What we know:
Elements: E1 20-23, H1 25-29, H2 39-51, E2 56-57, E3 60-61, H3 74-77, E4 94-95, H4 99-107, E5 112-118, H5 121-128, H6 132-148, E6 152-158, E7 162-163, E8 167-168, H7 171-183, E9 188-193, H8 200-212, E10 220-224, H9 231-241, E11 245-248, H10 268-277, H11 286-300, H12 307-312
Parallel strand pairs: 1-2, 1-11, 3-4, 4-5, 5-6, 6-9, 9-10, 10-11
Antiparallel strand pairs: 7-8
Helix pairs in contact: 2-11, 7-8, 8-9
Organism: Streptomyces pakalii
GO molecular function: lyase activity
Protein name: Hydroxymethylglutaryl-CoA lyase
Amino acid sequence: MSAQGLPMKVPAPGLPSRIRIHEVGARDGLQNEKGTVPTEVKAEFIRRLAVAGLTTIEATSFVHPKWVPQLADAEQLFPLLGDIADVGDVSLPVLVPNERGLDRALALGARSIAVFGSATETFAARNLNRTVDESLAMFEPVVARAKADKVQVRGYLSMCFGDPWEGAVPVAQVVRVAKALMDLGCDELSLGDTIGVATPGHVAALLTALNEAGVPTEAIGVHFHDTYGQALSNTLAALQHGVTTVDASAGGLGGCPYAKSATGNLATEDLVWMLEGLGIETGVDLAELTATSVWLAGHLGRPSPSRTVRALTPPPSSASHKE
């Protein structure tokens, strides 16, 4: 919080009392960096996020290093995170693309995984080198094996609102793939606005259509990018619908290496500021989180794009980005 005690808490009717933030900065954020962040810095970043009160922190990806070289150190990083359990009940999900990735994750003791699909054929071809249905077939044994081992499974669905090659994506098309992912056995579905083109009415329409298709609101998370400055308004629309899981990235890091028009994720600090003002609990210490993003920005050599981080951080002349 700022020294002035802001934002003032003014609850709005019809909103959840508590939100779980699914922090993606260490994975979705860092995978889009041009340079490689040292493993020790990644581990310390995740530790600091946990200390700030985040309880779901996506740690890394077990995608082949050829495709995401920034996360090639998954085997080295994950064992460094065992002490995070000491700061609270923290879940460390990891992304897996296929059975080989699942093998790697399980060998290191991962208890929460995510698979990532696409609502559009073009992105599926570019990102997964498969059709949409072929990718679902690839996920089927991954989800089945994970569930048999009592591992939590999240299904990411990209391009839910628009695709840079195909344009607007019909709601019915998204619902078909989303329902198929859930039918595989996923515990949770994350709706990705990969290129940030969603608007609140579109969000409400998709959530309603998913409910009508049998996907319950409590199983849905939302993942907005802020390309057109709509991430917070879209999040509010999702909260008004009853969604209680929101993806965000500390400092607003990230994008998508396979969709060049995708800019940064919704900044966790910006999300927390809005939720604090609405009186919605997150369990996150905004000052601690902001300090963490400033610390990481120092390692990345550039200021955080988060407006809240910038607003709460002293000017460079009086601030130190050193550890």
